[in-house]
Design goal:
Elements (H helix, E strand, L loop, with lengths): L3 H13 L5 H9 L20 E4 L2 E3 L2 H12 L8 E7 L5 H6 L3 E8 L4 H11 L5 E5 L12 E6 L8 H4 L2 E13 L2 E10 L2 E10 L11
Parallel strand pairs: 3-4, 3-6, 4-5, 6-7
Antiparallel strand pairs: 1-2, 7-8, 8-9
Helix pairs in contact: 1-2
Length: 215
């Protein structure tokens, strides 16, 4: 279930699907994805598929996590890290764990309060300590910590949230799925002064990005 051979098959598939960053692939290989899902689903943890984590949320498929991470850090030197990244939609913490080695500090927002203690415990066990996590409305971003060199969003709004755009640093990137449940496009938006360059990365399927919070 969690053997090296099982993980190697996943990495081989991600390579075939176009993931090129070897550091990202190695991180996917080494992070124990089975710890982020219910025990009943652990046998499927290394399939390239999204899985439910409760509360109407999912753990994204490894390909999408790898693509979003690779797109955020593209061009970063091997010994360099992004200084500050905002993550909107912590979920189970899997994307956080994959991203952690590439960032000096992650500021992560989760709107469902019940998920937060589980994430803190799991990431602490995996020695992911470069994280500040809070219960808040992700659509508003985290103004007091802006600007961010990267923002990564794990749920889909119908259009790009302006609050997030304006919290990007110069040259910073926002990686976000845009659209409705029936049609979403993963985009990478790069800030160049007061203009924003948009690239379309892939068709995706995320839960909607909702306003407000839940206990």
């Amino acid at each position: 279930m969690t053997s090296a051979r099982t993980r190697d098959r996943l990495i081989d598939r991600l390579r075939v699907d176009g993931i090129k960053n070897e550091a990202v692939l190695e991180r996917i290989r080494n992070v124990p994805r089975h710890l982020f899902v219910d025990e009943a689903l652990a046998s499927r943890a290394y399939e390239d598929t999204a899985l439910p984590i409760g509360f109407g949320q999912t753990i994204s498929q490894p390909y999408i996590v790898a693509l979003m991470t690779e797109s955020l850090i593209e061009g970063l030197g091997a010994s360099k890290k992004l200084v500050k990244v905002l993550e909107v939609g912590t979920g189970c913490g899997y994307q956080t764990a994959i991203l952690a080695p590439f960032v000096q500090h992650i500021y992560s927002i989760e709107r469902i309060k019940t998920l937060i203690p589980r994430v803190r415990k799991r990431l602490s066990q995996l020695k992911v300590h470069n994280l500040t996590l809070r219960h808040a409305d992700g659509l508003r971003g985290w103004i007091s910590q802006a600007p961010f060199q990267g923002i990564i969003v794990a749920a889909s709004p119908p259009e790009v949230p302006q609050d997030l755009l304006h919290q990007l640093d110069e040259g910073g990137r926002l990686v976000i799925p845009i659209g409705t449940r029936s049609s979403q496009q993963l985009q990478r938006i790069t800030r160049r002064g007061n203009t924003f360059e948009t690239e379309e990365l892939d068709l995706v399927s995320f839960v909607p990005l909702l306003e407000g919070t839940e206990v």
